[in-house]
Amino acid sequence: MSNTDLMTPAERGAAIANGVEVDRLPCNPNIANGVARIYGCKISEFNHNPKIIAEAQMAAYRKFGCDSLRIFTDLFTWAEAMGATVILPDDDTVDLVKPAISRIEDIDTLTPANPYKDGRLPIYLDAMKYLRDLAKDEIKCSAGVVGPFTNAFFLFGVNETLKLIYKNPEAVHKLCKISLETCKAYVKASMDIGLNPTISEPMSSCTVISPNTFREFSLPYLKELVDYIKSYGSSPIIHICGQTDKIWQDLADIGIGGMSIDNVASLKDCKNTIGNQTKILGNVDPSGIMYIGTPRDIHVKTLECILEGYDSPKGYVVMSGCSLPIDTPSENIEAMMETVREVGYPVDPEKVKYLLEHYSK
């Protein structure tokens, strides 16, 4: 436990759920692969060493006292396990080089990934076991997975799949169906280990596709995945980059456990639209504030977010709007954590305004 927190994240989460007094709002800076910097390893080690993945996550928790840990290194793990080609840089995040297939007729050759055998998936499952044993009852850990629609783009290529939406919608549905089977197998394996799944669906963003395209091609498969996860007693948090306001209601209606929003979206609008249905998480700018800002900038922005989100009916978690850039300064992450500790709980808006005035000077 971080030396200045009065409760463990698990105690805090349980107390909030039961309406009992807590020390502060939950906070997740979403450090992502930046944990390599804290632990002192190269990011490439995450691609083959499950123990290091888990230990790096724990190192970040021990240093900052953040409220959740996640096994997730890049968006392409599932497509790679289904035949896509990725580049594994020495000390940077994995990237897609070549999709699994390049011809529509090859969609029928795709098979769902086996999480116990294919690509790097077994490494992540092992990392989950290590993390579960390290975290014990102290902090909740999650398993990140990309949504079926996003994974479909990496199977056929991003630009090609965007064209396919108009040229051959049936082919897109086929890609999403096979994608969904991979997602289901992976989340089932994760839940068997004891980790709750979280879903990243960047290609579902209204910045990328229209809300109608989302409803036709992404939502049915996302709903099936969420229903599947819920049938095992877990309720996933979903993160979608960019603008998402036009699909918030769709997402809340499928029964997600939380909505994590990008910094370009409005926290206040999200709270007012779906805060009575699900938890809201967000949305301090990961690049413009957390990465290049000063600790003072982080105090100000975090306080502004708290003021907008603290009274969300189903709960609010202070979080960056997306994964932090790898080299985000430690003192900036610390500034976010310090802010939530300074505010305390229950949140007094007058105190927050006073602190905002202080840090804005």
Explain how this protein is built:
This protein has 361 residues and is an alpha/beta fold. The protein has a single domain, classed as TIM Barrel. The protein is built from 15 helices and ten strands. The strands form two sheets. An eight-stranded parallel β-sheet has the order 1-10-9-8-7-6-5-2. The radius of gyration is 20 Å and the shape is globular. The two termini are 33 Å apart.
Topology:
Elements: H1 9-17, E1 27-28, H2 35-39, H3 50-64, E2 69-71, H4 77-81, E3 85-87, E4 95-98, H5 121-135, E5 141-146, H6 148-156, H7 158-167, H8 169-193, E6 196-200, H9 211-230, E7 237-240, H10 248-253, E8 258-261, H11 267-274, E9 279-284, H12 286-291, H13 295-309, E10 316-320, H14 330-343, H15 349-360
Parallel strand pairs: 1-10, 2-5, 5-6, 6-7, 7-8, 8-9, 9-10
Antiparallel strand pairs: 3-4
Helix pairs in contact: 3-5, 5-8, 6-7, 6-8, 7-8, 8-9, 13-14, 13-15
